Write a sequence for this structure.
DNA sequence: AAAATCTGTATTATCTATAATACTAGTTTG
DNA sequence: CAAACTAGTATTATAGATAATACAGATTTT
C-alpha cells in the first residue's frame, strides 16, 4: 500500500524524463487500461536510452501504482483514465469550480511585496514604467494537494484597499470589486510551460513537469489594467473545460460557449 | 547569425533540463529584456546542479541568441517577449487564425488507418466498444515551422465520405459538414503535457518540452460523437486567446467571450 | 513441444555530473 | 581607488548514471 501519490521519481535525469513522459500519457488519458505499453526493449529504442534506464522509470511507475508488470506477459496500465478529482475551471466565472464539487480549498501566501512593475507586466497593462505594483504569489490547494501557483500584479493605489490577510482568504476578484473597481474586460492567454525549481517545490511536483500556463489581464471601464495574473496549474489536477454549441446560420455559423451546462450534463 | 531556431540543446540530461526551463521562461514572457538572469552560482543552487552544468545550458541559450553574456556584468535576456509569430486559436471558429494573418499553412499526413476505437475515445464519444474509427495523425506547419500535432478519430461510416487527400488539404470541420453531418455541440478540454519522442521529432522540438494539450469531442444533433481530436501544440508558436467581457447585473454578472474582436481584427 | 517475447536479474566498462578548486579579466558599488 | 561582484577558463578526483551485455524464468503464440 503505497501512498506516495506520484512522487517516487527515479534518480537519474534521463530516467526521470522517461518516467515523466509515460506518466503524463497515463494520467492524461492517452494510455488507458489493458495491455497497452510496448516492451522495455522498444521503449528503450524510441526514447533513445538503454533498457536499464527504462527499467528505472517503470520501477517508479509501478511504485506509484500506475502500471502492473508481469514477467513474460508485458506491462499494463492500471489507473488509466480515472484521475483523482480533476478540478475544472469555470468559464463564466473565471474561477475554479471548487465549492460546487465539495472540495476544501486553501490558499497559502508565498510572497508579498510592493515594487516597480516588471517590463512584461507594464506593457500588458499599459502602466507607466515606474508605477509601483503589488506583487503577490500564492498557492491554492484542493483537499491538501496544491494545484495552482498564482502570481498577481495589481497597481499599488488599488491594492492598498485590501490587506495581506484578505489575499490569503479571498479571491482577488471579490477584493477588487469591493475596492470599487469597475471590471469591464479581460484577456486570457493559455499556453504550456515547464516547472522550474521554485514552482515545482511549491506545487509538490518534479522539476521539468508540464504545467498549464494562463496569463490574464483585467481592465476596468476606463481601459486601465487593474490585474495581471500569471497562473501555473498542474495538468493532473486542473483542466480548462469549455462546452460549446454551434449557433447561427450559413456563413455566420459559429461556436459559442454553452453556459450553465458543464461536464456531466444528461440532456 | 545563427539560424538554429532553438535546436542547439546541450548534451547532458541535466543540462537540458536547465536549458529547457530557462528557455521556456524567456519565450514565455516571464523573463524579459534587461539585467534579468541570476548569477551562475545562484542558478546552480536553485536548480540543484553544479555550475558546470548551468554553464552548458547557458552556452546553448547563447548559441540560440536568447541571452547575452558579459563578463563581470552578468547575463541578460535578448529576445524577451518578441516571439516569432505566435499563432492564436480563434474562439468562435475553433480554428487557428492563419489565413487572416498571412501565414502559409501546410499539413502533412503522418499516419492513416482504420481500426477499433481506443478505450478513451470510445468512452468519450459513446461508441460501441468494437466500432471502427478512422485514425489520422497530421502535423500542421506555419511558414515551414510545425506548430501542431493532431490526431483525429472519426467513426468509419462517416469517414468514408472523404478521401485521404482531402484530409491533407482541408480542415476536418469542412469535410464533416460536407458529408452531411449536422454539428451541434463540442466539448474542449485544455491541459498541458510533455513531448514524447515521436511527437518531439514530428514537431522539431526536444523530448521533454512542454506542449499545450487540447481534447475535443464534437457531437451531431443526435448527440452522437462524430469527431475526437487530440491536439498537441508548441507553446512558443501557438496560444489559446480568449477576450472576455463582463456582462449582466448583480448576482447574474458573469463573463462572456468578446466575439468579433480578437487581437488585431478589423472585422 | 518449440519458438518467440516479455520481465527479472546481474555484470562491467564508459560516460556524465559533481565537487572542490584556482585563477583571470571585466564591471559595478561603495 | 578599492572592494565586491560577475563571467570565462581551467584542472582533477570522485561519485553516479548510463550503455552494452548476457542469461534465467514466465507467458504467449505457433
Amino acid at each position: 500500500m503505497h501512498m506516495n501519490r506520484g512522487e517516487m521519481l527515479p534518480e537519474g535525469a534521463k530516467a526521470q524524463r522517461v518516467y515523466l513522459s509515460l506518466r503524463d500519457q497515463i494520467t492524461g488519458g492517452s494510455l488507458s487500461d489493458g495491455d497497452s505499453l510496448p516492451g522495455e526493449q522498444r521503449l528503450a529504442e524510441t526514447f533513445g536510452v538503454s533498457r536499464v534506464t527504462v527499467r528505472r522509470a517503470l520501477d517508479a511507475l509501478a511504485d506509484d501504482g500506475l502500471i502492473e508488470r508481469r514477467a513474460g506477459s508485458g506491462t499494463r496500465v492500471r489507473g488509466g483514465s480515472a484521475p483523482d478529482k480533476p478540478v475544472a475551471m469555470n468559464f463564466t466565472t473565471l474561477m475554479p469550480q471548487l465549492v460546487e464539487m465539495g472540495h476544501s480549498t486553501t490558499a497559502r501566501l508565498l510572497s508579498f511585496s510592493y515594487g516597480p512593475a516588471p517590463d512584461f507586466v507594464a506593457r500588458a497593462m499599459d502602466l507607466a514604467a515606474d508605477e509601483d505594483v503589488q506583487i503577490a504569489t500564492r498557492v491554492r490547494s484542493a483537499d491538501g494537494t496544491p494545484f495552482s501557483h498564482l502570481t498577481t500584479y495589481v497597481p499599488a493605489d488599488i491594492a492598498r484597499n485590501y490587506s495581506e490577510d484578505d489575499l490569503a482568504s479571498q479571491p482577488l476578484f471579490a477584493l477588487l470589486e469591493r475596492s470599487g473597481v469597475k471590471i469591464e474586460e479581460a484577456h486570457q492567454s493559455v499556453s504550456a510551460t515547464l516547472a522550474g525549481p521554485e514552482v515545482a517545490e511549491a506545487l509538490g511536483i518534479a522539476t521539468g513537469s508540464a504545467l498549464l500556463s494562463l496569463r490574464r489581464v483585467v481592465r476596468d471601464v476606463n481601459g486601465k489594467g487593474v490585474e495581471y495574473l500569471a497562473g501555473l496549474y498542474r495538468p493532473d489536477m486542473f483542466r480548462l473545460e469549455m462546452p460549446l454549441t454551434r449557433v447561427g446560420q450559413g456563413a455566420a455559423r459559429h461556436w459559442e460557449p454553452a453556459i450553465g451546462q458543464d461536464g456531466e450534463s444528461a440532456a
Remarks:
- The helical segments of chain A are 13-27, 40-47, 51-63, 119-125, 156-159, 164-169, 172-178, 197-203.
- Residues 13, 39-41, 55, 58, 69-75 of chain A lie near DNA strand C (CB under 10 Å from a C1').
